[in-house]
Write a structure and sequence with these properties.
Blueprint: E1 2-3, H1 7-17, E2 27-29, E3 39-41, E4 50-52, E5 55-60, E6 69-71, E7 76-79, E8 82-85, H2 98-114, E9 121-124, H3 129-137, E10 142-146, H4 151-162, E11 167-171, H5 174-188, H6 193-211, E12 216-218, H7 223-227, H8 231-234, H9 247-255, H10 258-272, E13 275-277, H11 283-289, H12 314-320, H13 326-329, H14 336-339, H15 342-352, H16 362-371
Parallel strand pairs: 9-10, 9-12, 10-11, 12-13
Antiparallel strand pairs: 1-2, 2-3, 3-7, 4-5, 4-6, 7-8
Helix pairs in contact: 2-11, 2-12, 5-6, 5-10, 5-16, 6-10, 15-16
Keywords: ATP-binding, Nucleotide-binding
Protein name: Asparagine synthase (Glutamine-hydrolysing)
GO molecular function: asparagine synthase (glutamine-hydrolyzing) activity; ATP binding
Length: about 375
């Protein structure tokens, strides 16, 4: 059983068809020609898949089904004898034709979104360029989650108004956090403060989407990694959070973190009752993003300005200009855990429960107390 692609496509990729065979990712069981069981996971890990750590024939898409789940690594085949890497992400040289590169991104995004079936679909909408592209290209209702005074709620409202779209706001409360944290930790197997802070807004918006009768949620995952959306990429090589010496190298470095992030996000959304749909992680978009030069990831900063403040995701913003109002195409966004104020309120609840900031990793200790 394969999630995300038909078995014929995956077999062709295994037979030398390459790591980007025209899907939005895949994972599952695809036995060898001799009938030997084997599990596969695509090169970016867009679908999670697990086995028992000591028994690679017992497997599931949901780690809660297993006693000691071990994820299949991205780009690998897992058999009873171990893991074999069969795909690596392409590393093409930087293109020197900016106009053609932007047009390639535009064409890839247009094709990937056109291929999405909008039936029973909603869009996770933060007001940033990633989710705004999905809102402009998909005929589906928009949802945002955050505390009432949060950046994400304000940004989503103003962007939806600029795009003349209705928006459903899921206003979060402390009670939502206290209820959802144990559910989320059980679903993802993660209790650290960072993972919980990122996944909580996704989980809570997805709960409302499911309650309203939709079973699929379009998300903008991958755009920051592929198109240079992080300050640490913009500031390479001067940011200690990356090892690379160039913007392009730093971009590739953060792309390699996608499998771990996507595992968390997919499991969180499924636990809330929806299946994620990530058009900006379509193979066509990945292929268009990888050759971008550093200047189409991060613009040169103004004289005297900090490089971290330079315009980021340049090619994606230029590609989106025909679809979005200028104010939306050029808008920056905050990371979801901060833009929704979930991290702030998790910290507040932890301190109210006696887990003070002087304690090491006090929010994670609070999260674990909720689970226990």
């Amino acid at each position: 059983m394969i999630h995300g692609a038909d078995p014929t496509t995956v077999r062709a990729a295994l037979d030398g068809g390459g790591p980007l065979p025209g899907t939005r990712g895949f994972a599952g069981r695809l036995d060898a020609e001799d009938g030997a069981p084997r599990l596969v996971r695509d090169v970016l890990g867009r679908y999670p898949c697990f086995t028992e750590a000591d028994d690679h024939t017992t497997w599931s898409f949901d780690p809660r089904d297993l006693t000691d789940p071990a994820p299949v690594p991205a780009g690998h085949v897992r058999t009873q004898s171990g893991d074999e890497q069969v795909w690596t992400l392409p590393d093409p040289p930087a293109t020197d034709d900016d106009a053609a590169a932007i047009e390639a991104v535009r064409a890839a995004v247009a094709a990937s979104t056109a291929a999405v079936d909008a039936e029973s679909l909603a869009v996770a909408f933060s007001g940033g360029v990633d989710s705004a592209i999905l809102a402009a290209r998909l005929d589906a209702p928009l949802y945002v989650a955050g505390f009432p005074d949060s950046h994400d709620v304000d940004a989503a409202r103003s962007a939806a108004a600029a795009m003349d779209r209705d928006l459903t706001v899921v206003e979060l409360t402390h009670e939502d956090i206290e209820r959802a944290v144990p559910e989320l930790v059980r679903a993802t197997g993660r209790a650290n403060a960072m993972d919980v802070g990122i996944a909580l807004p996704l989980y809570l918006v997805a709960e409302q989407v499911a309650a309203d009768g939709y079973d699929r949620l379009a998300v903008g995952q991958g755009a920051d990694e592929l198109f240079g959306g992080y300050a640490k990429v913009a500031k390479a090589p001067d940011d200690p959070r990356v090892d690379a010496e160039t913007v392009r190298g730093a971009r590739r470095e953060v792309v390699t973190t996608l499998p771990d992030q996507l595992e968390r996000d997919v499991l969180a959304l499924r636990a809330a009752g929806v299946e994620p749909v990530p058009p900006l992680l379509d193979d066509r978009v990945v292929e268009a993003a990888l050759p971008l030069p550093g200047t189409l990831l991060v613009a040169d900063p103004k004289p005297g300005a900090d490089r971290g403040d330079a315009e980021r995701k340049v090619a994606l913003r230029r590609a989106a200009e025909p679809w979005l109002p200028e104010t939306v195409a050029g808008r920056d966004k905050k990371a979801v855990q901060y833009g929704s104020l979930v991290s702030r309120e998790l910290d507040r609840l932890a301190r109210q429960a006696g887990y003070k900031r002087r304690m090491d990793d006090h929010v994670t200790k609070y999260v674990r107390s909720l689970v226990e």
